[in-house]
Every structure is written in structure tokens, then in C-alpha cells.
Amino acid sequence: MNEQMLAALVVLVAAAPLVAIGLYFRSGRASHLLAGVDPKKVRDPAGLGRFVGQSLLLLGLLHLPFAAAVAFLPEEQILLATLGLVVLVGLVVVRLVFGLSRFVSK
User: Fold this and answer.
1) What is the 3-state secondary structure (H, E, C) of the chain?
2) 13-28: per-residue pLDDT in tens?
3) I need a labelling partner for 62 at 20 to 30 A (CA). Which of 45, 53, 72, 79 fits?
């Protein structure tokens, strides 16, 4: 197995927990696990679970095209794929952080 395929496999293995945790949050049973969110102040626990779960799923699924890029693109272009992943992950995280305020009363 060449180095690029091994790196792509590592990316996929790293994405698996994000997808699993995203599915768990989306089921609505894990909103109490969110750091910095008081469960007593959550207005819509089911909506919060769906929102966080979908965000984590999206983070995990963003790794799939990145893994394909790592596996099949020339090394010179992997830097661009990495930059794209970092930008997209940053956007999802910003959306997640600011979106949490919709579900928590002050």
C-alpha cells in the first residue's frame, strides 16, 4: 500500500467517530453532553440534537472527498485540498457555534 492510500485510510478512520457521534447527537439523546450548554436552559432539546448532529455529520462527511483527494491527486495538489478542507471545517464550526444560541435561552 503506498503512502497516499495509507494517508487516505487514516483520514477515513478519523472521520468515522465524527459520523458516529453526529448520529448519536441527532437521535436526541446526547444534548446533555454539550460542554457549555446548560440542559435546563435549552428551549428545544430535539432541535438542538438535530442541529449539532447534522453539523458533526457534515464535518465527518467532509473528510470523504478529502480522503479521495489524498488518495488520487498528485502531491502538489493535496495542499490545495487541505486548504479547502480547513476552510470548510472552519465554516461549519462557526455555523455550529453561532447556531447554538438559537436553542439556549439566556
Assistant:
1) CCHHHHHHHHHHHHHHHHHHHHHHHHCCCCHHHCCCCCHHHECCHHHHHHHHHHHHHHHHHHHHHHHHHHHHCCHHHHHHHHHHHHHHHHHHHHHHHHHHHHCECC
2) 999 999 999 999 998 7
3) 45
Residue the block writes with cell 453539523: 55
Going by C-alpha positions, the residue among 51, 70, 67, 63 that lies closest to residue 88 is 63
pLDDT at position 45: 85
The distance in angstroms from the start CA to the end CA of the chain is 53
In single-letter form, the type of residue at position 47 comes to: G
